[in-house]
Amino acid sequence: MQRLLPVGCRSLVSKNIWSTIVELCTFFKQLCASTVNVSDMVEAQKQLVLILCKLERIFPPAFFDIMIHLVLHLPEEAILGGPVHMRWMYPFERYLKRLKDYVRNAAKPEGSIAEGYVVDEALTFCSRYFDDVETRFNRPDRNDDGIHPTRKLSVFESQCKPLGKQSYVELDNNARDKAEFYILNNSPELEPYLNEHKQELHVRLREDYLNINEVHRTEFAGWFFEKIYAMHRMQAPEVTNELLSLSSKTNMVVSSYLTCTVNGVRFVTHDRDVRLRTQNSGVSVLGTGQEMFYGQLQEILEFSYLNGFSVVLFRCKWFKCDSKHMVTENNITSIDINGEAYKDDQFILASQAKQVFYVADPSRGPNWRVVQHVKHRSIWDITDDGLSDIDLLQHNSSSNFTLFVDLGNLQEINLLRRDQDVIPIVQPVTNASRHVTDDSSFLNDADEVELSDEEDESVEEYADEETDAENDIDTEEDDDDRSYHASDSD
What we know:
Layout: H1 4-8, H2 15-31, H3 38-56, H4 66-70, H5 74-81, H6 90-100, H7 109-127, E1 161-163, E2 167-170, H8 173-185, H9 191-204, H10 212-233, H11 241-247, E3 253-257, E4 259-262, E5 265-268, H12 270-273, E6 282-286, E7 292-304, E8 310-319, E9 326-329, E10 332-336, E11 340-341, E12 347-349, E13 354-360, E14 368-373, H13 453-489
Helix pairs in contact: 2-3, 3-5, 8-10, 9-10
C-alpha cells in the first residue's frame, strides 16, 4: 500500500481518484517511518479529515465501515504509543508461521509444536557455549562487509567487500585522469591544496575565467604530485605515507568486480542485474546543492596506490534530472531512464552511493521509472549528541514525506464510469388517467367550499351509519359480560 499501490493506480483511474489514494498512502508512509515526528502526526490528523471527505465523494457508502473510521485515530495513537514498527504484529505473525512449520503429525499439531519449540530452545541454549562453531549468534550478517582499517585520509576508507570473481580492466589515460581527479577533488583533507592551485590559476589566467575549471581539472594532479614530493624532500612533517601515496599515479590496470557490499548494502552491476530476479543496481548521490542524482551502476573499480592503499569507485550511468526528464508529483518521483547525462563525470566513491530501486511507471510510458528510496534493516543513523529542537519519538524522520491534500478539483469529480455506455433507467407510468395533473382539482383548507344539498345528505347518512355501528358493538359487549357473570354464578 505504501509503494506499489500509488504507482499502479495512476494509470487505471482519473487523477482526482488516484491523488486521493496517494494522499492516504503518504499518511501510512509517515505512520510507519522509523521516526515519528509529533508535529507531523498533529498535522496529519487534520489532513485525514479532508482525505476521508474526498473518499466519500468517490466510493459508495458501503465502503465506509469501522475500519475506515479507525484511520482518524491512528495519528493520536502514534503520538501516545511511539513508532508503529516497535509494536506492530508482523514479528508475531512471522513467528506463528515458524511454529506451524514444526507440525510433522497433522493429527497432533499441538504436540508437534511443543516438541519443536523444546528442541529449538535446547539447541539455542547449547549453542551459546560453542565458541569455535558458527551459530546464529556469532555468524556475520549476509551483507557484512567486515571491518576496514582506519585511515587518516577519508578517500582510503572508501572500501568494499568484493563478491564473486575478480577481473582486471586496463583504462585509457583519459578515463584514469578523470578517476584520479575525482578522488583528489573529493578528499576534504586536500581542500587547502585545491584552493591554492585555483588561486594560482586566477593569477595566471585572469582574463580567461571560463577555462579555469577545465585547466584546474587537467593540471591539478601533476601540480599536486610535484608539490608533495618537494615537501617530502624537505622532510615536511605533514607529508605522511598516505598523502604521498595519494599524490602518486594509480596503476593503469584496475580490479573490477560484478558484486560488492558497501556499508551493509549489496550492489550489483547493471549487466548482471538484468539477469537476476532481484534489483541492486540503482544508485543515488546527494549533490553539493542538496539535489539528488539518480543512475545505474555500470562498473565497480578498485584503484591501487603505493604502500598497499586503494580506493573503490563506482562508474555509473547518470540520468537527466531536469524538469523534462524527471517529474515529482504527490511525493512520487518519476524519471526517464533513456536520458543520459554527465558522460564525462561518471565516477563516485563507493562510500557515497545510496541504493534506490526503480519501479516501472505505466502512467508515463515504458521508459519511465518511479524512484523508491528504502531504509535497510539493521542499519541505523544514530546521532551522538542526542539533542534536537524537534520533538522526536525515535531517531529518524517522518518529515521526508509531505502530506498535502489538494482540494482544488474536489467539485469536478465525475462519478460516472467512462469505460461503458450510460444506459438511463426510466420507469414507465401506467394508468396515467388515475393521476391528477391539474393543480386546481386539489382542495385547499384556506378556501371556502360550499357543498350541494345531495352531498350534504350523503354526509349525514354516512354519519348515522357510523353511529348505529358503534351502538351495535356496545350491545354485543354487554351481552358477553352478562353471559360471563352467569357462568361464574353457576
